[in-house]
Amino acid sequence: MPDVTTDVRIRPLDELDLNGIVRINEKITGAYEPDLWEKRVMFYTRRDPGASQVAEANGKVVGFMLGDCRAGEFGLEEPSGWIERFGIDPDYRGQDLGRRLFDAICAHFKAEGATSVRTLVDQNDAPVAGFLKAIGFGESSLAALERKL
Ligand SMILES: CC(C)(COP(=O)(O)OP(=O)(O)OC[C@H]1O[C@@H](n2cnc3c(N)ncnc32)[C@H](O)[C@@H]1OP(=O)(O)O)[C@@H](O)C(=O)NCCC(=O)NCCS
């Protein structure tokens, strides 16, 4: 496993990161989805680039975390940070990159006046749920509800 702890750079998302994110997502899910990710990257960069960050090692994007700071939704009047999508290249996991991306985004959320950060997780996805617990997420009084249409 490449050791990137010393020379990794955490920085805001840029439109040019699209190819790197498509590649990481393909490694994680097996699906090559450039059009889908182009829409997402455009959305997050135009909305608030600092709320989405990438990890770059030797000029190559090896991780991403996409988020957003919003107010006035779900009865939450105060600004709240939301973590929406993330992925670390499997070759670069276990080196704190996920945590460092999260910390950088949280610093941005705080600067925007947010006092909490929220996300949704599939409780059946043990690795992602475990990561979110390890970086400090706990139960919320808000619950995700759904019904079939
Ligand atoms: C979950 C994920 C982001 C973790 O990234 P990472 O860089 O390896 O995580 P870090 O090294 O920053 O770990 C931070 C903490 O989370 C914990 N953690 C990481 N992966 C974990 C896992 N699979 N299960 C339990 N805990 C985990 C670490 O032990 C660490 O805790 P500690 O500091 O108390 O030791 C990465 O494995 C990933 O991208 N998974 C796939 C996500 C996905 O399915 N995305 C879909 C595309 S949107």
From TrEMBL:
Molecular function, one GO term: acyltransferase activity, transferring groups other than amino-acyl groups
Keyword Transferase in annotation: yes
Pfam families in alphabetical order: Acetyltransf_1 (PF00583)
Residue intervals of the N-acetyltransferase domain: 8-149
This protein's UniProt keywords: Acyltransferase, Transferase
PROSITE patterns, A to Z: GNAT
Designated name of the protein: GNAT family N-acetyltransferase
Organism: Eiseniibacteriota bacterium
